[in-house]
Design brief:
There is one protein chain. The chain is of the alpha+beta class. 23% of the residues lie in helices and 36% in strands. The strands form 2 sheets. A 4-stranded antiparallel sheet has the order 1-2-3-4, with no helix packed on it. The chain has a 3-stranded antiparallel sheet with strand order 5-6-7. The longest helix has 14 residues. It starts with 14 loop residues before the first strand and ends with a strand.
Length: 125
């Protein structure tokens, strides 16, 4: 029987929000590759960055925050909500233009003392 890396959800656990980072996070890469688009290599770089960004999923439930990453192999990191001690909203200029935030969570979890949710739309909510 194969072991799974996901913690089974309790009967009362409900998903509150699920999302992925915004493509604004790769703005400069897309811009430079767009300028160099007559070359073949930038097209592959853009495709890889797009796939890489789409493979990141954030999930907030009533009990935990899950971060799922990985293109070929999947890594799932979970932080129980009661372990979150503080949070910071970060919005550099480029992210501010598009209404996107980085959410930085400070936790008491030993394996993940700092969890960053990048490129979240409407991060204040």
């Amino acid at each position: 029987m194969a072991a799974t890396t996901e913690t089974p959800a309790g009967p009362d656990e409900k998903t509150i929000w699920t999302g992925s980072p915004s493509h604004v996070m790769n703005f400069w890469t897309y811009l430079v590759c767009g300028i160099l688009s007559p070359l073949i290599i930038p097209i592959f770089i853009i495709a890889w960055k797009w796939i890489e960004l789409r493979s990141v999923v954030y999930e907030v439930t009533t009990e935990r925050i899950r971060l799922k990453t990985g293109i070929f192999a999947r890594l799932i990191d979970e932080v129980e909500l009661y372990r979150v001690r503080d949070y910071h909203l970060e919005q550099p200029f480029l992210l501010r233009l598009f209404g996107v935030y980085n959410i930085i969570l400070i936790t008491s979890d030993k394996s993940t003392p700092k969890l960053v949710l990048e490129g979240v739309k409407d991060g204040e909510h």
